[in-house]
Amino acid sequence: MGQDIDLYLISGFLGSGKTTFLQNLLEQPLGCRVGVIINEFGQLGVDGTILRKGDFEMIEINNGSIFCSCIKSGFIEGLLAMLSQPIDLMLIEASGMADPFGMKGFLENLDGALDHHPEITRRYAWRGSVCLIDALYFEDYFYSFVAIKKQVEKSSLLVVNKTDLVDKERLEELHAELRVINNDARIYDTTYGKMPWELLRQVLDPARGAVGDTINTCDVRPAYYSIDMGEKIETEKFAAFLQVMAGDAVRVKGFFRDENGKEMFADVVGSSIGLRPVTAEEAGRVVFELDLIGSDADSFETAVEQAWRSVFPQRKIARRDL
After folding, report:
1. Model pLDDT for residues 279-312, shown as the tens digit of each residue
2. Do both 172 and 242 map to the same domain?
3. What's the predicted TM-score (pTM) here?
4. Core-most of 21, 175, 275, 320, by most CB within 10 Å?
5. What torsion do the CA atoms of 291, 294, 297, 298 make, to the nearest 10 degrees?
6. Residue 306, domain CATH
7. Which strands form 124-134's sheet, in the order they lie side by side?
8. Distance between terminal CA atoms of the chain?
9. Which structural domain, as residue segments, surrounds residue 111?
């Protein structure tokens, strides 16, 4: 039987910095062959595009949480496919809306299914979960999204990101709040998702399995709207649209072409709006789509379309169907 593959789960709410954190890990000398599964709520893989291609195997699973029955079969297929790859380490970046409860049980069920596949001789060895915390917006979303509490509860390492955006007093308050939810976890403060790989490997505790029933079901999917951004758009007006949407959307991200045809990336977390040119690593791999996620499924579609009309009264919004 081949050597088991160490598996780590990276969780954290929308916009907390999971992809940057993962990218920073992959740029370090890990000393082993790596596999990556990226799970996004949107239809297309924005995070997979941002993540620089390197010496690792990667699978993207989109349009929901891997812990939801909606796309669970795709997750199973991805895990099975990776077992046949020459890797020693598996890193899974879960969707920001994912509830990791049930992850360990899920892997145990996968082991049972593999009993019927004698040709597959390797298994996954659960090593634990790390949760990214947005120092600036954690409190704003904590009481609205149960998944955030679930992510914090089942992690043995809490990485408080974006600490440069809050003062010392707020950071101390955040630590106290996290201790109430999970007093056993190690807390590590950072900026730009930076953390040494050795700390992750040493601190994560496989005994803290994500055991229990997940809240992720098709019935509790958050509000979602996707816009086809294939046509050029004026950057100043587009930024105005994002500003209007910042009040209703908890996360917005995607690629677009500005008025000069330059490829750009838009990233909105709370009221923070970022627009930047596509990098050399991303060029040629982008899909021009804007994904928006909101908390109120009943009114979110109306809010998006009204915001669009307020900035682009003569331009019809090009919705991308699910």
Report:
1. 888 888 888 999 998 876 678 999 999 999 999 9
2. no
3. 0.83
4. 21
5. -110
6. 3.30.1220.10
7. 56-61, 34-39, 89-93, 5-12, 124-134, 157-161, 186-189
8. 42
9. 5-203
